[in-house]
Structures are given as structure tokens and as C-alpha cells.
Amino acid sequence: MPATLTQSAAPSSDVVANYLTSTCAAECVEVNAITLLSGGAIQQNWQIDVDITGGPQAGKHTWVLRTDAPATVAASLPREREHAIIAFAHAHGLRAPKPLFLCNDAAILGKPFFIMEKLPGVAAGHKVVRLPLDRGALARELAQAAARIHAIPSAKALNALPFLKTYHARDVIQACRNYLDTLDEPHPVLEWGLRWCERRAPAEEETTFVHRDFRTGNYLVHEGKLAGLLDWEFAALGNPLEDIGWICAKCWCFRHEHHIVGGVADLNDFIPAYEAESGRKVRENDLRYWQVMAHIRWAIIALQQAQRHLSGVEPSLELALTGKIVAELEWDVLMLTDKL
What we know:
The chain is an alpha+beta fold. The protein is built from 13 helices and ten strands.
């Protein structure tokens, strides 16, 4: 998600240096720069450039410090749990950054945070879709990355991450309805879309480990190749086709709808590669179903982002404007369900 335009106070260089000195068993840590990174409107990502003297981490490093924004959305996992998910994903070769340190002591920065390695590349969606790319090759890399996530059985993921929730189609529908019921204003198109999805919900669903935010903007491209997968805060157990519908939803094309796979590639480059790697079939009706669900779910998140602004806790032009895209998402829902 795009970075908020709210001016955020950077973590104190001295505080970060003291924390790292202790955590890294270093003689001295110099923090040369702390920079707010683009991406992650629900959480904050700060690039920290450090020079460590002594200890096992001695040397110059560029890391990412990830912590809570002033306000958040309910489905976003706490930092401790996201850190555990990233560690699990990294250990299983899922192209996640290597997590380094977790701090739950609110006395340090006033809120939990963790530090991870910074992978190379461009993540911002509006930039990625304009890169000179071998689009077919990138699509195949993305397909393989998704298939490897979905190759992890739910039991294995749950054994390592017992807090993971399960989201099948009807769970997603109910969660969206529950949120809409808290709002003062009606959203009949979203209600229509949810009813459409409910009537067509699969009777049986496969359950695997899923990313649940697998899209352009949440992966890094470096020298034309996939360099890493980011933002694991929504990871759960669920239907692997939810991830496929998510990256193939028009709302994540960044105005490059001619490349329906995240604005970077065509279905013919992505779906066959995913099917070959995963061993599962992605039928046209199933893909369309999860594309509809993706637009509804993103509309719900957009409404939640707007509420963060309206609450006064986190005044932000970006969050306010995010709420304005709901009408566009509703239009896409009507188009996908043949109501226009």
C-alpha cells in the first residue's frame, strides 16, 4: 500500500544506537541515517544505516526497522507475530527478508518493533509496472513464489505459528459484512458483491499457508528479477486461490490493466507457470470469483484506512484519499459480476 503522507517522527538515532549496542553485544553503534521508506501504509518501515564496532554484527549495515503506525486495521497482525511469520517464511525459502531482532519493550520506542535485512530492489507499484522488464520471466518467478508459499501444508504452518487464523471464502465474506455493519453509511454494491460471492462460494476448499497480500507493491524487483516478498502481516491459512485472485485483480495493476497480473504481465505468462509449479488447476470461474473477492476486500481495507484518518488519531491526506477509491472498486465489482 502506498506510504502515508503524514509526517512521522523518526525513531531517535541515539535510542536505536543504544538498543543495537546492547542487542548486538557491540562496543559501539553509530546510526548514520534513519529514513522513512515508501510502502506499508498500515505499518511504518524505516531504513536504518548503521556502523557497528565489535561483536558478531561488526561492520556497516543497511537494515529495515518495522513498527506500528499511529493507527492500524484489525486484520493486521502484531509485530511479534509478523516477525515470527517472516522467520518461518525465510526459513522455508519463501524469499522473505531475514529477520534479525524483535523488541517488545515499549520503553524503547514506545511500541513494538523488529529489525530485518533490507533486500535490494524496487517495490513501489507505480514504479514496478514501468520498469523495463522481461515480463514473462517475472510472471513465472511470481508464479513459482506463490506456488512455494502454497506448498506449505496448513498443519505445518499451524504447528510453527499456532496463532494463524483460517480464512476460507465464507470467513472472508463474514469478516467483510461484520465491518460494514459497524459503519453509519450504507454500501449496497459491496453488500451485493458479498451476496454474489456467498451464493457462489466453493463447497469445499483446499487449505494451505497463504500470504493474503500477494501483489505488486509487496515484492521487490532488482535488475528485472524477483528479489523478495514483503508485508507478511496478513498471512494466514486459507484457499491458495485467494492469493492468485489478489495479484490478478485490476485494483493492483496501477493503471496498467493491459497486464492484468499486477500490472506487469499477462495471465498466459502467470497461470500456466503457477499450475505447473503447484500442481493445481486455476479455472476461469475460480479466478473471477477471487478477483471479485479481492476488490471487495480491498474496498473494506480502504474504508478502514479512511477511518484511521477520520478518527483523528492519524490525520493523513493519503489515508483520506484511499477512502475515495471505494467507488472505483465498487464499479469493478459490478463489472466483474456482470451487473453493468
